[in-house]
Amino acid sequence: MSIKAIFYSKFDPQEGPKIVHQVPEDSISTTSDLSSSVIGPSSSSSTTPLLSFSTISKFLIPRQSLCGNLISLSPPPLSPNTPPTLVLSYPICLTSPHYPRNEFIFNFALVLGEPSTIDVPSYKSVVKKLAQLMRSLEEQSRFLSDDNAPANSGKIYSLCEMLMEDLNNYCECMIPIDELNTLNIKLFPTLPNPASVKPWHVPLFTVRIDTVVDENWDLTMLRIIPFVNGVNSVKRIANLADADLKLTKKCVKHLLYYGCVLLLDIFSFNAIYAPTAEFEMLAKDTEMQKECARYVNTAFTPGAQEEAIVDSGVERRTSGLTNVTTLQDEEIWPLTGKGDPIDGVAVVQLFANLRQGLTVREWYAQNANLLANIDLRRFVTFGVIKGFLYRVHRYAIRTAKGGTVFDQADGGETDLQSLTRSMSSEYQFSEQYAAAIRRKKHHSNDKIDKRNQSLNTQIIQYLDGTHCFDEICTELGIGEKDLLERLKSREMGEVSIICR
């Protein structure tokens, strides 16, 4: 149980700070003598006290300036055997002539277990919401100040009891208080901030998105979902869906935050992959080898409109003529080019053959027989998802500037004018036509040169060793082959390509 205790305290005009109700009973020591709390629980209860109220009362019932703020504190343990706890509270102070001393200070506090094992931020919203609801009830009907029930009894005690039980067992509660008010609380886990989404990233679903999507979702989200298939990059998805790139990135980031997608690299036969330190996991796990065989076997690969999704870190098919989960072990292995089924050793060998300096195209050429009936993209994707393959990106660094040579000579008109002109109107027409064709060709070549020069200027901005080829090609809309050819040109100067 994450919640060890819940207690309601207030400032009493005669007694000062005091605990009115606590669940479980005697979980909070209310005596000022700590030695009595250390000896053991009272005879009327088997509950061992978690903390002493007197040591933290000035923080739970603070001065008026500190009220209305979330207070988190770690009370000192009552004994060396007392487990560490964390107390979350949100004290409220109401001022009115109706109250003695013209103010009423109360606090509902949660006592949590070991903070390192609990998602503490999710409980902070619970404490705040409970305090705000009780404030509204007190302002409406004096719900707290007019309560005269004995300690650990009555409707407030029952409310705390149900709240603790429901949150510990179901992580949510819906407790009716009166005809107009209901306490609705749900624990939402605090998720880490998602990674930055780049235009060259490729999103892949980890859930069956068709089971959770509905017509009330964001319009941009609904437009991009059909194009998220583990192949299209974020920029391509935006183009296919006719959506703004910034909005598309926000939608993908939203899906990434809730674990609905994961991000991959653009698959290319010129890409380089290498095993990680986790590769040993595949070599020892025969079930993972079978799982990989089922996933990459082209006999079970869904079509383009039946793209697979990832579930619990492993992609599973959403449709298909064959239910691969019911196949026998000997039926899941892909066949080689000679018709023989491969085994787990061959799967491990194929992953081991991927290394630095070897492109996917070269790797395929060396293992063409084993890969005859294996989906290469899914094979690589499986390794990346499982964590025993990583993408080796290529970066370009410009080490020396180059020079641009432009051919300024254009003798078309000069040569034409040097010809002996005829007085024939037919000859004059031919001369003018030829000149027009040459001017048009020169203008066209000039436009191409300017376009190439502009593109080369843009490429140079990425040649600082911090931009991978995927980024450059995606941002400029060119292919990797075209990029490599331009990097070898004299205009670029000396360019070094590194892999890491």
Automatic annotation (TrEMBL):
Recorded superkingdom: Eukaryota
Keywords linked to the UniProt accession: Membrane, Transmembrane, Transmembrane helix
GO BP annotations, alphabetical order: negative regulation of TORC1 signaling; positive regulation of autophagy
Gene Ontology annotations for the cellular component aspect, listed alphabetically: GATOR1 complex; vacuolar membrane
InterPro entries, per database record: NPR2-like
Residue stretches of biased makeup (Low complexity): 26-45
Pfam families for this protein: NPR2
Chain segments carrying region Disordered: 24-45
Record GO terms (molecular function): GTPase activator activity
Record-stated family: Belongs to the NPR2 family.
Protein name: Nitrogen permease regulator 2
